[in-house]
Amino acid sequence: VAAPLTANNNDAPILVGHRGAGGVAPENTLAAFKAGSQSGADFVELDVQLSSDGVPFIFHDETPARTTNVEEVFPGRTNDPITSFTWKELRQLDAGSYFSANYAGEKIPHFDEVIDVVTGNTGVFIEIKSPAKSPGVEKVVADALANDAKWSKLERAGKIEVLGFDVASNKKFAALAPEVPLQQLTGSVPGEAVLADYATYADSFGTSYRGLDAAGAARVKNAGLGLGVYTVNSAAAVDASLALGAERITGDFPQQMKRHIAGQ
Ligand code: G3P
Ligand code: CA
User: Fold this and answer.
1) In this structure, which ligand is nearest to the CA of 22?
2) For site-directed labelling of 1, which of 82, 134, 156, 195 has its Cα 20 to 30 A away?
């Protein structure tokens, strides 16, 4: 079991910038991770997948359609799996223009690039996204955290949590890196027996705040799991999440969450 995570201010909830700070900059780009880190989020969250030639990159969706200019660069491949692209191909895509012309030219980042833009006390929530499409991604992440100097420094500082929806993938990761905090995600809170299974390998549980109620929050706590919620994008949702005892709050506007919690 990993040591519990803490916010930079010990008594406060852990504030996490979703996809960096996907509400203020193009999601999962270095611009978003910089914005999330500079806003004082305790962590920035990213989604990691593997290219067809095995390179870990940061991207949420299963295809490039929504957030890149793929149709211009690779006509006809708009709805292809993002993991069917080589790393060299992925780097040719513009992942910023979909958000605003001000971000034209933002690239899909390599997994390691995020470390160079998170500053101060900001840590990283690493979501292993769609792992069935990225065979071996658990080992790539575990190896980076264990062997890469920059990643392992963050990990030793208590500034890393790994998360994912896929139970088999999470169990694989837990076996490879039992010392790394691990969060099991599901869209709603399951029953006691399933939560008890989660507690055998995970430290915390994360779900949509929309599906969370007092009974669900109590089941999570009774299973001995920490509680996280996503994607919290309003003051009312922050308040509701805190009232239910969530100590990890993930949202697209981390600066606004931080100000709200500070009463500003
Ligand atoms: O923090 C968990 C959250 O990121 C899960 O949802 O779809 O944004 O990856 P999604
Ligand atoms: Ca995610």
Assistant:
1) 1
2) 134
Give the ligand whose atoms come closest to the C-alpha of residue 16: 1
Please determine, for residue 79, whether its predicted confidence score (pLDDT) is greater than 90. yes
Pocket probe for ligand 1: among 33, 58, 124, 250, the residue whose CB has the most ligand atoms within 8 Å is 250
Ligand 1 pocket residue status of 47, Cβ below 6 Å: yes
**260 is known as an active-site residue:** no
Residue 259 CA to ligand 2 centre (angstroms): 23
pLDDT given for residue 11 in this prediction? 66
- Average pLDDT over the chain reads 96
With cut-offs at 50, 70 and 90, classify the pLDDT of residue 12.
Answer: confident
pLDDT tens profile 224-246: 999 999 999 999 999 999 999 99
Residue from 166, 180, 177, 167 nearest 139 by CA: 177
CB 123 within 8 A of CB 162: no
Determine whether the shortest distance from the Cβ of 20 to ligand 1 is under 6 A. Answer: no
Domain coordinates in residue numbering, the chain: 14-62+117-261
Annotated catalytic residue: which of 13, 41, 59, 60? 60
254 Cβ partners below 8 Å, 6+ apart?
15, 16, 17, 18, 21, 36, 39, 40, 41, 44
* Interface predicted TM-score of the whole assembly (ipTM), two decimals: 0.99
Q: Are 241 and 249 in contact (CB under 8 A)?
A: yes
Residues with CB under 5 A from ligand 2 (ion): 47, 127
| CA angle (150, 152, 153) in 5-degree steps | 65
pTM of the model: 0.97
* Ligand 1 centroid to residue 215 C-alpha, Å: 22
**Mean pLDDT over residues 92-112, rounded?**
98
